[in-house]
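ok here's 6-carboxy-5,6,7,8-tetrahydropterin synthase:
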Amino acid sequence: MTVYLSRKLSFSAMHSYRIEQWSDEKNQAVFGLCSNPNGHGHDYVLKVMAGGQIKQDSGIVVNITDIDKTVKTFIEEQMDGKFLNKENAYFQTNIPTTENIVKYVWNSLRDKLEGCRLHTIRLYESDYLYAEKGEDDMVRLTKRYHFCTAHRLHSEQLSQEENDRLFGKCNNPYGHGHNYYLEVTVSDRPDPITGMIVDLSQLDALVEKEIMERFDHKHLNLDTEEFKELNPTSENVTIVIWDLLKDSLKNLYKIGLYETEKNYFEYYGPDQELV
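and the structure:
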């Protein structure tokens, strides 16, 4: 029986997204503000998850302070307080995108943990952007967005009494509202030149056009075509968002939706099978 445990650490670093063989104009066109040769910085949060068998004598998989020591030593020596492009040999030839950093951390730590095996690495560049790497070759990048909308949970296939019983105050005839947080996750191998798996400016433009313009500050039941006859539960909203993005985002991996801090929904597409 495998049990998983995680440890969270933080560090600060600066970096620049830049290919020296390119002109300033091309670097700015591809990397935007991140192409500043003088660099910019982040307070990163790193989550390390490991797994293993419980030891019968101690009741633990591994002493989590041992994981902490191994990871801290690596981070302090290689990344914390550094200009990554200039002070880390790997990032002198690989652009320190979030995708490349999480790949580098994974490859550096995967054989370093004793008494357990590395399961996933998740790196938060900010509250709105993080990357994750596991045992396969893929890196997953998640961008978070915010929109405000109203809806009424009501099914024409149910009686009014059934709607009242099932949805309670969410069946209010005038509707109610939420601050939704949408997470769009893509999965791919980082491009060997740019270090990216998606152009974030293009992703932002796509989400703005297909999601924000349709749903932000709207009443889903009354103002959108998608939910005129479809009950706008958060389950249905995640599926509709997937369908709106999938054709333009070929490496779409997951849609996550926070209706509230307590209610979270995710959808991996129609091919997902529950096991």
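+1. The longest helix spans residues 200-215.
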